[in-house]
Amino acid sequence: MGRLVARLAKLARGAGHVFLVLSHERRRVVHFNVTAHPTAEWTAQQLREAFPFKQIPRYLLRDRNKIFGDEFGRQVRDMNIEEVVSAPRSPWQRAYIERLIGSIRRECLDHVIVCNETSLRRILTAYFSYYHATRPHLSLEKESPEPRKVHPPELGRVISIPQVGGLHHRYERRAA
Q: What radius of gyration, in Å, describes the C-alpha atoms of the chain?
């Protein structure tokens, strides 16, 4: 695992903040969690939870949000991760995660009512399942982060499988 981006964003009004860790190679969301009151200790815990037994990345890109405090910095150093902090007011230096946040808002949260942290977590879990297995990415040659099989016409007719509560659909061939 090479480069990762960590970002804390307020995605839904009144439902809390979302901590995201995104892998650059395949645009996979490695870890996310939701809280109403983020702290430096909470963000450091999220980093530990993102890599409990997995290979630890070499680099972690992040913005200058004050929530990434001393506790978070100590955790990054303890894990032997090189922390790269972007320049002030420079979202283009974290383009992949900023694009993901925009996609979450446009393709999902703008179309649902988020009541609380639990509902936001449930909605994001469904969206990330769609995002990883179905959603095409131009930068991945119109493939999803988890490569899909090509279904030949011999498999049958095309059916629609609703995802993210019906906001999006997956189309597959199934035998009649």
A: 18
Q: Please report, as a single letter, which amino acid is at residue 64.
A: R
Which pLDDT value is given to residue 71?
86
CB 102 within 8 A of CB 162: no
Tokens representing 27 are 């645009």
Burial class (CB in 10 A: 0-12, 13-18, 19+), 72: buried
CATH number for the domain running over 3-147: 3.30.420.10
For the chain, the domains span 3-147
pLDDT band of residue 8 (cuts 50, 70, 90) is confident
Among all chains, which residue has been given the structure tokens 């009541």? 115
Average pLDDT over every residue of 52-56: 76
